[in-house]
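User: hey, got a sec? need S-adenosyl-L-methionine-dependent methyltransferase folded
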Amino acid sequence: MSSTTPTTTSPSPLKAPQHILSLLSTLHARSLEQESQLSATGKVFSSTVLGDLEDKKNSSTTSTTTAKADFDALMLDKFIALDEDKCHFTYQLLTALRATNVVEAGTSFGVSTIYLALAVSRNMAATGKPGTVIATEKEEQKADVARGYWRECGEEVEGVVDLRVGDLLETLKEGLPERVDLLLLDIWSALALPTLKTVLPRLRAGSVVLADNTISGAEGYKDLLAFLRAPDSGFTNVTLPYTNGFEMSVYAGAE
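Assistant: Yep! Here you go:
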């Protein structure tokens, strides 16, 4: 009986033109380089960075507000993109779900959005259904850069993205699809639960919520995880064994 040597990396499920694949490779490399410069662990967590900034301030009542302003300024030109293997998983999941309506909380420079849009475009072509990726970004400067990358990708990305710029708890209040297939939470952990509650009325039965860094960022995500894991939440949950954790929660629907 013959045997073969297993490969060390899994093949990419991504189906895209070469210019998009090359762009994604460049953007992921840039993100990893920036994270290594910001963190000794090679991974940046908003709660950790905020804590470090607060420690550098005095203990006055304005320290937290000032630290948040400093955090926003520090992150203004940083990618901090969703890890490439997690992007591959999300793309594969979307194609399996035949998902056509996706909400992304935390777009930044739009790297993970490219994967979401490619999957939605593929599913739209396969099902004949309309679809959209609703992306959210607080900073107009980042939004402009993201739009440039999507434009570089072409219509199958740019044509399906609906970018909402500003406070996502406001921009997601209206104009959501009747049925949302997947919600990706890749934002400051304190905003994760309020964002989920904003989108929850639109989640269809069988929809999925993904949240990044739920092992390393467990303290910041404790309210979100408690909500998702409550017996009457309507969600079943599993922490996927990706670096720093990747929570996958499937919604059974409201009782």
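Quick note: The beta strands are 101-105, 132-137, 161-165, 180-185, 203-212, 235-240, 246-251. Let me know if you need anything else on S-adenosyl-L-methionine-dependent methyltransferase.
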